[in-house]
Amino acid sequence: MKKLLFVSKNFEPVKITRVEINAFLQKKLREFLPKIKSKEIAGSSPPEVFVGRIGYPKVFVGPMVSPLEDSEDLLYTERWFGKSLEEIFAMRFQAVRGKTTAKVFDLNNKNVQKLQEALLSRKSVEAEVKFKNIPKGFRISLDHQPFGPSAFIEDFKLRPSSTDFKLEKAFYDFDLKASEAIFWLYQNKTPISKIQQALSIGMLGIKRKLVPTRWSITAVDDTIGKFLLEKVKTYPQINEFRVYYKEYLDNRWIVLMFPSYWQYESIEAWYPGTIVDSLAIGGDYEGYEFKKEYASIGGCWYAARAMVAEKLFEERRQAGVLILREIHQNYIPVGVWNVRETIRNMLREKPEVFDSLEKSLQYISSRLEIPIEVWIRNSKILRNFYHQSNVKRFLMSSK
Predict the structure, then answer these.
(1) Confidence band, pLDDT 50/70/90 cuts, at residue 20
(2) d(Cα 275, Cα 241) in Å, to the nearest integer?
């Protein structure tokens, strides 16, 4: 896990840097694993690939395959919102990861080319994979979606289906920069999950290479967010305080939009029993100029920014945005898609509208467990408001 802040009983922050998935969660997740007894799988691929980052620039790369005849839904995270954790893991653990090695600049590698050809398909493709050993284990991450057993590949065949012509056009345009290809595909309604796959397997841009899946997810979200925000910054500001609220997968979400030039902050609070033993809170802020250093809370920050930018772009408005997220004890990480699709879906709903920050904070306090004083202490945006006398009076009256 990325760098967060430990919060003691007195809510005094101390830095921590690493979190392990505990034994209880590992045991619980194993209940969803398929019982694989063979070194061969005949079925389909969404199509989906996974590119690792360990050993870079020589990495593990391979297809995600499933015994299902149609595995298309295993890839498109845009279709997952509303599913329970049990449904997500039962579905995703059907995705078996095949592994082989490749150098990131070697796009002439025959296995890489087979994966690229398959990814040009509009629907799931037939797959046959022969592994060196029986696939075992599983993998979950804060960044990418979970997947089930894995093993090294001896050989594999993917039979492409009908072509995705938008992706094909970007693939064969070697004069189009990767960032431009990403945004063009997004504008032309290509799912973000598919764009991330294309970037990862070296299908976009002028100087192409394999991009580890974890990096490609953030790169696509970051690129889309920046393209949209360049337009958003030219629009008039909203003139009200909006509060959006959502509960999903034992997460509680707040999005506060307020009258301001563009500024953005996202803060996460992880509860004990998730992937931490004690309450942990941390976040990152961006002013009118784009943040240069990588966000300490990782890909979630960029996914959320892209979705609030999408909403403001649709409305042709500009605002300051604060996201607060409480991650309660029954949550198990399922990837950055959870952030992207939760924010996207909650912003489609009607917000609570207020004429002041005080009233907005009162509503937020009624929805979140962590005291508002703690959020203020960890939020640059709220600390700036805190120094205004009207908020001081609100805090004094709420005690």
Answers:
(1) low
(2) 33
Whole-number mean pLDDT of the chain? 91
Q: Which of 108, 133, 162 is the last residue of a domain?
A: 162
β-sheet with 150-159: strand ranges across: 40-45, 125-131, 150-159, 96-103, 58-65, 49-51
**Which of 117, 81, 340, 121 lies closest to 220 in space, CA to CA?**
340
Which pLDDT value is given to residue 399? Answer: 46
pLDDT of amino acid 390: 53
Confidence at 25, pLDDT banded by 50, 70, 90? confident
Return the CATH number at 127.
Answer: 2.40.50
Encoded amino acid at 233, one letter? K
Distance, CA of 219 to CA of 149 (rounded, Å): 27
- Using DSSP, state whether 106 is helix, strand or coil: coil
Interstrand relation of 320-327 and 263-270 (parallel, antiparallel or unpaired): parallel
The stretches of 316-371 forming alpha helices (DSSP H) are 337-346, 357-367
What's the whole-number mean pLDDT along residues 51-66? 96
Domain that holds residue 343: 4-18+235-398
Total of domains in the chain: 3
Output the pLDDT for position 21. 60
Q: How many CA atoms lie within 13 A of 355 on its CB side?
A: 0
Q: Is the pLDDT of residue 9 over 70?
A: no
Domain co-membership, 268 together with 300: yes
Please check whether residues 47 and 83 belong to one and the same domain: yes
Of the candidates 120, 126, 125, 70, the one whose C-alpha atom is nearest the C-alpha of residue 94 is 70
For residue 223, how far is the Cα from the chain centroid? Answer: 14
* Per-residue model confidence as pLDDT tens digits over 200-253: 999 999 999 999 999 999 999 999 999 999 999 999 999 999 999 999 999 999
Shared domain for 222 and 257, answered yes or no, is no
Domain boundary among 162, 187, 209: 162
